[in-house]
Amino acid sequence: MRIARFIGGLLTGLIALVLAVALFVFWFDFATGMAAASGLGALGYVFLWMAFGLNLLLWTVMGLLRLAEDGTRAALRRDPVHKGNRAVARGREREKVLVGAGGGDAGETVVATSGNDDAEGTLMRTRSGGDVVATDPDDITIAVIIPAHNEEPVIDAAISSALGLFNRWDIYVVSDSSKDSTAEIAAKTGVNVLELLTNRGKAGAIEAVIEEFALTENYDGVLILDADTELHSGYVEGAKRQLADPDVAAVAGFVVSEWKPWERSIVGRIISAYRDRLYFMLQYFMRFGQTWKRVNVSFIVPGFASVYRSRALKQITVNPPGLVIEDFNMTFEVHHKRLGRVSMHADTKAFSQDPFTFRDYRKQVGRWTLGFWQTLRRHKMWPSLFCLCLALYVFEVVLVSLLFLVTVGIAVFVLLGTFAGDLLTGIPFLTDSFSAVTAFLPLTALAIGLLVPDYMLTCMMTMIRRRPSYLFYGLFFFPIRVVDSYISLRMIPKAWTAKSDGRWSSPVRVSKDK
Asked: HSE (CB half, 13 Å, CA atoms) of 262?
């Protein structure tokens, strides 16, 4: 059976690869011909590559540079000559106490402590406020917060996932005025449970449990884990390895869509497959480059499974008024207050349950998008590389969403004129408009320009995941992108007019035990 699955996956990947290459060659040949014929010149080629996203291309290049640097460093670490040089340097360093070294903040003391001859030695940084930052992964302590509101079907699985990696006394569940058995189920597992009588929302619940148990005083870091999320077995090791860098203020979790198609309707499978493609593209081709330490401009530390260093978390306003979600704001706080850098690697994976219905999907995307614009309204812009990259991102999101919706509208108009031309014959304005539009943008050009690039990405994901069903589900991704574009624009004015308190409503959940 394993051999059959392996061969099936290999064939699926090969077919998807051939299809992706064939579509790209066809699209590129057609699109370059159209760009040249339109007379737009270089501008035409810019719009051509916007089909994939200029930010995506930019940060893919940054990600490749990061890979090259990491590969070079790994090669040097394996070089026995460099190892000898570092050993000598460490021996000298153990004899010294360095004050104000390493580019630290004012009032910071850097102390090199001795270890055995084979160890790297542990570097401790003591701030003037008295906080000590452990940089040996084995010494780093992490508390787990699981905020939950009516999460009876999934809370047990999330706690079990955390119990596989943490001691039960390091896990803190905060039930935010749940009306079901969330608190009771959590209490039976033996973890710490705080039950709030008033619904405060996720940010308010996080704030309450941190204060109640003084978590930032008793732990080096705090992991915020959603109740519908399960941690990968290597999550803690990866998170601690990243926190070993004292400049890291937050470790962004690497989200993977939970793929259990037997639990879902056809709509739920399409949503999960679409999210899988979206997460893969954003994380590998954008956030990996954005979290390179030489740029450090990631806009989001996702709130589903991420770790904040306690020293940084103390200075973050977790629950400011007027925001519908907390994770964008907390990330902006890290950058705005210069608390350190955001780190992300694929070794901090966690599996998240995507919406099961399109209604829940639309509501979730609406909350996320509204939260982004509200955070932008709250923090505004300040002179920094982060804000420069943020401005480029916002510009592309707004421009591409507008162009996308306008192009879809034109496509619908052309489609209507093509197949229902007789109905437009008696309307001079519509007839003339149809003739003008089709002369510049024929239906084939619109179809190829909109659908082919999108489906190429689906073929790539089919090859990577080796899931042939994606070739079918991918046919329905385009309408979801239309909805996403509409929501992105719709939430901009709402961010300045809507009153949000962060309280949550429970989506449809399916028990992880099924």
From this structure: 4
Q: List, as one string, the DSSP characters of 323-354.
A: -S-SHHHHHHHHHHTT--EEE--TTSEEEEPP
Total residues belonging to the chain: 514
Cα 139 vs. chain centroid, distance in angstroms?
A: 28
Strands, sheet with 109-112, edge to edge from the N-terminal-most edge strand: 97-99, 109-112, 123-126, 132-133
Q: How many CB atoms are closer than 10 A to CB 188? A: 12
User: What three-state secondary structure class fits 322?
Assistant: coil
Residues linked to residue 491 through DSSP beta bridges, in sequence order: none
Neighbour-count burial for 334-361, b at 16+ CB within 10 Å, e otherwise? bbbeebbbbbbbeebbbbbbbbbebebb
CA distances to 133, 139, 242, 274, 339 from 136, rounded to whole Å, are 9, 5, 10, 39, 20
- How far is CA 294 from its chain centroid? 19
pLDDT digits (tens, 9 = 90+) for 12-40: 888 888 988 888 888 777 767 766 665 55
306: helix, strand or coil: strand
What residues contact 472, with CB distance under 8 A and at least 6 apart?
Answer: none
Q: Which two tokens stand for residue 403?
A: 């162009």
d(CA 64, CA 71): 10
Contact assessment for residue 50 and residue 449, using Cβ atoms and an 8 Å cutoff: no
The β-bridge relationship of strands 341-343 and 248-251 is: parallel
Instruction: Tell me if the pTM is above 0.70.
Output: yes
Residue 95 identity (one-letter amino acid)? E
- What radius of gyration do the chain's Cα atoms show? 26
- Rounded to whole angstroms, the Cα distance separating 297 from 295 reads 6
Rounded alpha-carbon distances, angstroms, from residue 117 to 120, 282, 464: 8, 42, 43
Q: What pLDDT digit, counting tens, does each position of 358-407 carry?
A: 999 999 999 999 999 999 999 999 999 999 999 999 999 998 899 889 88
- Rounded Cα distance between 214 and 206, Å, is 12
Please tell me the distance from the alpha carbon of residue 231 to that of residue 511, in angstroms, as a whole number: 16
DSSP-derived secondary structure for 490-503? HHHHHHHH------
Q: How do the domains of the chain map onto residue ranges?
A: 12-93+131-514
Note every long-range contact of 8-13, with CB atoms under 8 Å and residues 24 or more positions apart, other chains counting: 8/466, 8/468, 9/466, 10/466, 12/462, 12/463, 12/466, 12/467, 12/468, 13/462, 13/463, 13/464, 13/466
Query: How many alpha carbons lie under 13 Å from residue 221 in its C-beta half-sphere?
Result: 30
Protein fold of 12-93+131-514: Spore Coat Polysaccharide Biosynthesis Protein SpsA; Chain A (3.90.550)
Task: Write the CB contacts of 149 (distance below 8 Å, at least 6 apart in sequence).
Answer: 175, 176, 177, 178, 182, 199, 202, 205, 504, 506
The candidate with the shortest Cα–Cα distance to 228, out of 370, 356, 324, is 356
Provide the pLDDT for residue 454.
86
CA pair distance 219, 150, nearest whole angstrom: 28
What integer pLDDT is reported at residue 118 of this predicted model? 37
Give the separation between CA 56 and CA 287, rounded to whole angstroms.
Answer: 9
